[in-house]
Design brief:
Layout (H helix, E strand, L loop, with lengths): L10 H14 L5 H11 L2 H9 L11 H10 L2 H13 L3 E4 L18 E6 L3 H4 L5 E5 L6 H16 L3 E4 L5 H14 L6 E5 L12 H9 L3 E4 L11 H11 L3 E4 L8 H10 L3 E4 L10 H8 L3 E2 L32 H4 L7 H8 L3 H14 L2 E3 L5 E3 L1
Parallel strand pairs: 3-4, 3-7, 4-5, 5-6, 7-8, 8-9
Antiparallel strand pairs: 1-2, 2-6, 10-11
Length: 381
């Protein structure tokens, strides 16, 4: 059944509804939608032409399917979604709006419409975003989570927004670091890009984190419909949006199959800078980071160094370093002593693998409870 726009809607509202209807029409993805907008000049004109069966065929889209899709465009359903969005405190941002991400224009391949809760800062939507993405694995090591939090804290203190995906592991640590900075009075906060609806936080365990993010002046953004759960294949697409809202992508401890590599690939495609944490060649958990370094990504060494790809003059006020520990954590409190110990001895004493032993000892060097000697052995600090 052909649907019509509400008769009392303003022209602006009619265009927003038409854009939302176009975005939700089955068979019309972002690229076809961009073609239709160019062909008809506006979403409203495209919808009207579709209801008359006047959509043109496009590559891999036969004319019969185009006509069927055009007749299926549903303005009434779009109005219902608009009301649902208003009820959950979200606002609609469409490609026709001034605060649609300028770096996404021309619009091919980007969503026509976004739902936003909380902040939607100009620093993120500018043609040259003043924002960094901090991404990495869900099953990140404690050291990776700590480093991601440091990076985000440094960014926030520098007035730079942090963009991530609200997932477990590195994403959550990045949001938390930016929130630390915001609570301390930093001028920037953090934006979470969701794969499902902006009102359906995923994972559910991060509802409190999402609430804290909103309370601290941050924002949630999604292209999915209000109430939608993340669809199969939605996360790689979401990762492209994260890259598109950032000037630099920092990849922390990515494995060879980490979804963070999708974000890095999108960033390189878009001409964004990619940095990643160095890793030991034998560490399978960081194979993705090693591949990025091999392919030309710059090394991500410390909070100061993370932001060299940002516009001139944007640097953290000071480096953020871990608070030194007074003593080693278990089992190193009993393994380490005044006498130096080699890696082989540490393996024998702990029963750990070589990668875990070296990673723990190197973290101890950074945290200050162990000293690495010139001959490669370690002793208690």
């Amino acid at each position: 059944m052909t649907s019509t726009a509400p008769t009392n809607a303003s022209p602006t509202t009619e265009e927003a509804l038409a854009t939302l209807a176009l975005a939700r029409t089955p068979g019309v993805g972002p690229r076809r939608a961009a073609e239709l907008l160019r062909a008809f000049g506006s979403a409203r004109a495209a919808i009207e032409a579709g209801h008359r069966g006047g959509w043109p065929g496009l590559p891999r889209w036969p004319r019969a399917r185009a006509r069927a899709a055009g007749r299926a465009a549903d303005l009434v359903a779009a109005e219902r979604e608009l009301r649902r969005g208003q009820r959950v405190g979200a606002r609609l941002v469409t490609v026709a709006d001034a605060d649609y991400p300028a770096s996404w224009l021309p619009q091919d391949g980007w969503p026509l419409a976004l739902w936003v809760r909380g902040a939607w800062p100009a620093a993120v939507t500018a043609r040259e975003p003043l924002a960094v993405a901090v991404v990495g694995p869900r099953r990140a090591s404690a050291e990776a989570r700590r480093f991601a939090r440091e990076l985000a804290l440094a960014a926030g203190r520098a007035g730079v927004w942090v963009v991530s995906g609200l997932a477990f592991g590195v994403d959550a640590a990045a949001h938390e670091g930016a929130l630390d900075a915001a609570r301390d009075g930093a001028p920037a906060s953090t934006l979470a890009v969701l794969a499902g609806g902006v009102d359906r936080v995923h994972p559910v365990a991060h509802r409190d984190l999402a609430r804290a993010l909103l309370d601290a002046g941050g924002g949630l953004v999604a292209a999915a419909a209000i109430g939608a759960v993340p669809a199969t294949g939605a996360f790689p697409v979401r990762n492209r949006w994260i890259a598109g809202l950032s000037s630099l992508v920092a990849v922390v401890e990515a494995g060879p199959r980490s979804c963070a590599l999708h974000t890095a690939a999108a960033a390189l495609e878009l001409g964004r800078e990619v940095r990643t944490t160095p890793a030991r060649p034998w560490d399978a958990h960081a194979g993705g980071s090693l591949a990025l370094l091999r392919d030309g990504a710059a090394p991500l060494l410390e909070a100061d160094d993370a932001w060299l790809g940002l516009p001139a003059g944007v640097r953290p006020a000071r480096a953020v370093r871990p608070v030194p520990r007074a003593s080693p954590p278990p089992p190193w409190d009993r393994v380490l002593g005044a006498s130096a110990i080699g890696v082989d001895g540490a393996i024998a004493a702990t029963g750990w693998g070589v990668g875990a032993v070296v990673a723990a000892l190197e973290a101890g060097v950074v945290e200050g409870w162990v000293v690495r000697l010139a001959d490669g052995r370690y002793r208690r600090a």
